[in-house]
Amino acid sequence: MDTIFFLILRRMRTPLLTLIVAYAVAMAGMAIIPAQDADGNPTTTSFFHAFYFVSYMSTTIGFGELPNPFTDAQRIWVSASVFVTVAVWIYAIGNLIALLQDATLQRAIAERRFRRRVESLTHPFYLVCGYGQTGSALVRGLTDRHLQAVVIDIDPERISLLQLDNQREFVPALCADARSPDALEAAGLKHARCRGVVALTNVNEANLKVAIAAKLLNPDSKVICRADSHEIEANMASFGTDHIYDPFDAFALYIAIAIQAPCQTLLVDWLSGFTGDTISEPHYPPHQGRWVICGYGRFGKAMYKHLKQQGLDLVVIEAEPHKTGIPAEGVVHGRGTEAVTLEEAEIRRAVGLVAGTDHDADNLSIVMTALQLNPDLFVIARENRLQNKELFDGVGAQAIMNPSTIIARRIRVRLVTPLLADFSNLARFQDEAWASTLVARIIALVEERMPYVWEVNIDQEHAFALHDAEDRGLRVTLDTLLRDPRDRDRYLHAIPLLLLQNGERILLPDLDERVEVGDRLLFCGREDARRRMDWVLQNIHALRYVAIGESQREGAVWRWIAGWQGPR
Amino acid sequence: MNPEKVVFGFFIVLALTLNFGFFVGELDNPNHHHAWELFVVIVVNMIATVLKFGDRTQMGAVLLATSLVAMIQLIAASLVWTFAVYASDGGLTNSVMASIVSLSGGAMIANVVSVTLLVIETVMLRR
User: TM spans, by residue (chain A) (predicted)?
Assistant: First the structure.
């Protein structure tokens, strides 16, 4: 048990003792002093009546003089004891209630409840440390796919926010410092169902500590971390952190790929977006010419590195180059918010602009000034805080870099549909024509909305009908799975993206590809297609129907009748 | 000397001695068992129970448990008494008195255990 419970009990001693003594003295007095009954005969007040009277006297309920009207001697005693017992009652009750409201006690109670809830989790869950912008986006993504999450955050306001957010699954949350291993353990780090730990706090050092604790206390768990600097990243990698995400590097790489292959970028964007959102438009960042980068901090450096690899002509504007370092081309000194600096960087000749300082107001100002000087610029703006979203939406930037949404999306894909991460990697080696064909197919399938992406594991649990289809003489191909179980001449609105078979990854597998036990499949399409497909995967009748177009009678009696009908 | 220990020991022993005082006498004779004695036993036992609150040790937990047992027995005894006198037609008969006194006897055993534990703890401390 926690120390706090004992401490509270110990502090309850004085109020309780005072209460007991005051009651005892008042009762004893009532019992000693002679009383009179209704006829004026002397009698005594019993302890029962004394207790009854003192209870309603001290709480000032005051039912009157019971059981008989008091003698004057009794009244003298009552007038003295009423002040004492009432005062003691108020003091004791006030104190006890204050003790129960004690912040530390409340916290201990909350932690205990949280522990119990985490212990009783029966489904696999992920432990998310830090419920900021990234954390909340990730938890939403996980719960939308019916995956459990447990949240730790140091800020009580964010925990209350979580309770207000309408999540599809119950998310146990604790307000605690994720750096303490105790809190991590309470959140189920050692729980048999804990699949992984995601460290997303905005403090690098905290993420590092979470990663270390996770690897030490539960070596089997997957650890995913956010790291904002290369040293921390290297440090995390050194002890086997499974995935490390650097938002700046991730975004810079994303832009670099978008410059090379806009269609492919669009494809991956759609597949990893939230189902049901409106689909995004493709960006076509200029792939040659002069780019101006404002701010040479972590983001500026990442952009510089990746844009440089694309062979672009770069100019860097930085207010404090002695702190950040100076790139090979030299640097234009200034903040970039004023026209003079931008002119010096020859903004009128530039094709692209990166407003990448860590100050949102500066970034907005840079974008507005630059667009006045050169309205044809392709603008990438860094949005540091999500609450400025509306401003950034209105400023006219083509791409907005928000560290948290990028990380949340990457991690969500990694956790919910790991095959999609494989798909993205394979897609990178395909050409633009391939990507644009696939994009066209997806548009035809889902219209205007982001497609739903899901994985199918062919095993007894997730595809009961398929696991022994061979024994029942059924040959199941991808074509079979994609037929509508209500009318097998129609196809479901789904595209098979990836087939993982015997360790081999097949991109956009053919429809006549055999599906065997142990395969893993990645589909995209409409959400209802998944439900219909699950039907086929689980129900042997539905599977037989889509496979050979007839539904056989199952069950002993029906089979007997069928056998009897057959020979006739 | 720890004044807290003195008060603690005082009330625990007092609870036992008063309890014994109420208990002795013919089991079913109301004249041998006075209401005042029971009242004082309950008050002192309550104080002893509250004094045992918030002790982290194993010994503290067991002491608290014995006190709670004594409290339950004594409160049951006082309730039986109250019901017999005010809520039943029979009044305080010999058989009712016998059950009141035997309930307080149970409480006394709990108090004996309490005192024994206290003595054991003290002896252990000496070593």
Answer: 16-35, 47-64, 76-100
Average of per-residue pLDDT across B61-74 = 94
For A317, which DSSP code? E
**Do residue B47 and residue A8 have CB atoms under 8 angstroms apart?**
no
User: What does the domain layout of chain A look like in residue ranges?
Assistant: 3-100, 122-245, 249-262+272-418, 451-548
Closest C-alpha among A11, A180, A216, A168 to residue A98: A11
From the candidates A5, A19, A20, A53, which should be mutated to test the interface with B, based on the most B CB atoms within 10 A? A20
Residues A502-523: tens digit of each pLDDT = 888 888 888 888 888 888 999 9
Among the partner residues A9, A28, A48, nearest to B82 by beta-carbon distance: A48
Both tokens assigned to A207: 């993420």
Query: Using an 8 Å Cβ cutoff, are A306 and A280 in contact?
Result: no
Q: Which residues of B touch A31 (CB under 8 A)?
A: 36, 39
- What topology is assigned to A451-548 in CATH? Alpha-Beta Plaits (3.30.70)
Residue with the two structure tokens 């097949």: A506
Which residue numbers in chain A have pLDDT < 70?
1-2, 551-554, 566-568
Q: What angle do CA A460, A466, A471 make, to 5 degrees?
A: 105
Q: How far is A11 from chain B (nearest CA, A)?
A: 8
**Closest chain B residue by Cα to residue A11:** B54
What is A3-100's CATH number? 1.10.287.70
0.90 surpassed by complex ipTM: no
Please check whether the two domains, A122-245 and A249-262+272-418, share a CATH topology: yes
Return the closest-CA partner of residue A503 out of A515, A513, A518.
A518
Superfamily of chain region A249-262+272-418? NAD(P)-binding Rossmann-like Domain (3.40.50.720)
CATH 3.40.190.10 fits A122-245, yes or no: no
Is B86 in contact with A24 (Cβ distance < 8 A)?
Answer: no
